[in-house]
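BUG: 3D viewer hangs when loading the predicted structure for this chain

Environment: internal workstation, default settings.
Expected: structure renders.
Actual: progress bar stalls at 90%.

Input used:
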Amino acid sequence: MHLPTLLFFRLPWFSVPGALLIALLQRTPILRVLATDSAGLAASPAVQLVRSVFTAAALGALHSRAGATTFIVTQGATQIINVSTRVGSTPQRRPATGTAGAALTPVALSYTGTPSPPQRYAITGQLPPGLRFTPAPVLGSVLSLAPVISGTPTQPGTFTVSVQGFGLAGNGSPEPIVFTITGDAAAAPPAFTTQPVSQSATVGSSVTFSTTTSGSPAPSYQWLRNGSPLTGATAARLTLNNVQATDAGDYAVVATNPSGTVTSTAATLTLITANAGARLSNLSVRTTMTAGQTLIVGLVVVEGARDVLVRAAGPALAAFGLASAMADPQLELYTGATRVLANDNWSATLLPVFASVGAFAFPTSSPDAAFVQSLNAAHSILARGSGPGTVLVEAYDTGAPSTARLNNVSARNRVGTGSDLLIAGFTIAGTGTKPLLIRAIGFQLNSFGVAGYLADPILEVFDASGTRLAENDNWSSALAPVFSSVGAFALTEGSPDAALLVTLPPGSFTAQVRGRDGGTGEALIEIYEVR
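Structure tokens produced before the viewer hung:
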């Protein structure tokens, strides 16, 4: 059918769908005649009257056909908005609710009633941050019969978004949807404030990886080893007990909350395997002391008893060109607070023992001190003199190798400047290599009531040729599991004490302690066997 010119020009005036207008023209012959008349007729008073009648009739036909429509919004199974065009109906409106950081129960939009549903929804206003329409709006409109609002709100507050349906049967009115989002703080994705740290540990010891995160709400955790989830490892800290070679690898943790997921950096767990043939066989400490000052040496023997030779060389050092040697050193052996024995001058009967362990000989009848004692567990040796001077205190493991052995040696004394350092020499005997934990403790001595401690010790390890093999200023928390495995006391996190882990072949070595920036004070050097 050919549409007359008048129809094309008059459609925008009525804002009536063309199909309804055509139907009205077909049902009303006079209107059809007038519509097909000339342009001059359109300007006549009669036509103007017909226009008014036509408009009223067309709108009446639209409402008659459309009937009542209802705009419905549901959140889950709950209806929160019900607005009807039916005369006398009462709109029902409630806000959609949610919690910042938690997934929103989806909000669905729909129309019910006689006319066809909207083809699109015009959107104005603001959704809560973190929420979205599905499908997504295009140029401010959602092209869907029944769009859905979902997501995870990230910010508490009250937000309003208006929707207006547009369809073949007409346009709906803009309807506000209010969102009430509760929460104490804005939701935020997780972020690591402390990353897990790589560690070395001995077989059979315990290891703990720890981390801290930010984020709201608090995230959940899943630890990974070499990229695979660990069953039950769902806390911020991961503790591995009785670690074995199969536990070595890279450990990371995944933190997740409704706002996001983040994976930590990987921390490597290295398992230390000791060679049973290598062992600590000797400790020697050289230091310069004032009158009345005491050098303290510690020895620990494990897995049985060992005969240990202990010496304090003063006058014997003159043979090495040392003019400032202590004139008459003295030795005392303690178990806990109990003095086991004391020695002022050595006995010539010990000369064969000196030779068997490779110790230099003392001059006959010299006032140096020495003794041999069977030791088991922990003991302390105190060396002092009636006057000042330099003294060398030594401990030797004697006899054939066995399971009983020196496990830990240590020395505590004042650290000065120049050549007046705390120097500990030690020897590794046997075959293979030996892992050792070496520590220089100054600051931590304060917790034991030691006055005048060395505030910031620096530790260096040298071989017999004087080549520096390792150095440390401030210890790493990665060594904490090693401290625990060898029975060393814990250090305060972030303390300026020094510690390092070295693996050395058989031979002689020295560990030296000096103060940072020329600092002086009391320090403790420790050497632990790591197995």
